[in-house]
């Protein structure tokens, strides 16, 4: 029996050290403090749950939960820069009106029947 108690104590100490030394992003499902309390108050069950559910193993791929706002990611792609329109609203509306007129003229020209070289329209005799 003392051997079993010693084994449980070692497992609990290893679990607590592992919880405390892990980064916040390597802890799953609960905050670190909740895992510590779980292992302290339910030593055997808490340790087993920590090693099976709460710990991020090295082989797994996991993104961090949050990033510090002060330092930008160096591996992030550069943000796309969009052109800024410096025209006034009236200038933009005038440009749109010109585009609409050009589009309507193009539609009218496409809708006309083709004419022969003499300028007369209609079927050839």
TrEMBL record:
Recorded topology in the membrane: Multi-pass membrane protein
GO cellular component: plasma membrane
Membrane-crossing segments per the record: 33-53
Annotated keywords: Cell membrane, Membrane, Transmembrane, Transmembrane helix
Subcellular location: Cell membrane
Compositional bias annotation for Basic and acidic residues: 62-72, 87-115
Domain of life: Bacteria
All copies of domain Cardiolipin synthase N-terminal, residue ranges: 10-55
Residue ranges, annotated region (Disordered): 62-125
Protein name as annotated: Cardiolipin synthase N-terminal domain-containing protein
Species per Swiss-Prot/TrEMBL record: Agromyces agglutinans
């Amino acid at each position: 029996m003392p051997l079993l108690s010693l084994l449980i104590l070692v497992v609990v100490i290893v679990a607590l050290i592992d919880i405390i030394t892990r980064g916040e992003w390597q802890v799953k499902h609960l905050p670190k403090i909740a895992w510590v309390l779980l292992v302290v108050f339910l030593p055997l069950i808490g340790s087993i749950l920590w090693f099976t559910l709460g710990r991020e193993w090295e082989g797994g791929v996991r993104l961090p939960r949050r990033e510090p706002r002060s330092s930008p990611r160096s591996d992030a792609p550069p943000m796309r820069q969009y052109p800024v329109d410096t025209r006034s609203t009236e200038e933009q509306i005038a440009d749109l009106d010109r585009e609409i007129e050009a589009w309507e003229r193009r539609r009218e020209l496409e809708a006309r029947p083709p004419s022969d070289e003499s300028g007369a329209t209609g079927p050839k005799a």
